[in-house]
Amino acid sequence: MCNRFNFIAASRINTTFITKNPTSVMNELVDRFMVAGDNTTPSLYFLPFNSGNGGHWVLVAMDLSRLMVYYLDSLPGNWSKYLSMKKTVDAAILKFRSKKNYRNRKD
């Protein structure tokens, strides 16, 4: 079961990197997905993300088997506060999907 979970270091994907070079961040995410993701084993990726708003942290959970992303935030509001992260993660999921020729499936 623990081979289903993968953690991405917050130092590798953060607001500063996304602002400076979102394409590089997207490609790094896709590379991470491609290493562990295959069409038979679901992979869950967890990325602690510092929003840059006074040190507030959000957990981004990415379920590659369902091509779903969840933003887990202890503060009320919506994901639009993290639009640059959402755009980058969404682009990475789409690129991963096209590289793996994934179909949205239910387990």
From TrEMBL:
Q: Which GO terms describe its molecular function?
A: cysteine-type peptidase activity
Q: Record's InterPro entries?
A: Papain-like_cys_pep_sf (IPR038765), Peptidase_C48_C (IPR003653)
Residue ranges of domain Ubiquitin-like protease family profile in the record:
38-80
**Short name of one Pfam family:** Peptidase_C48
Q: Which GO terms describe its biological process?
A: proteolysis
Gene3D superfamilies this protein is in? Answer: Adenoviral Proteinase, Chain A (3.40.395.10)
Q: Does the keyword Methyltransferase apply?
A: no
Q: Which domain of life is it from?
A: Eukaryota
Q: List where the protein spans the membrane.
A: none
**Stated family:** Belongs to the peptidase C48 family.
Q: Which UniProt keywords apply?
A: Hydrolase, Protease
| Protein name (Swiss-Prot/TrEMBL) | Ubiquitin-like protease family profile domain-containing protein
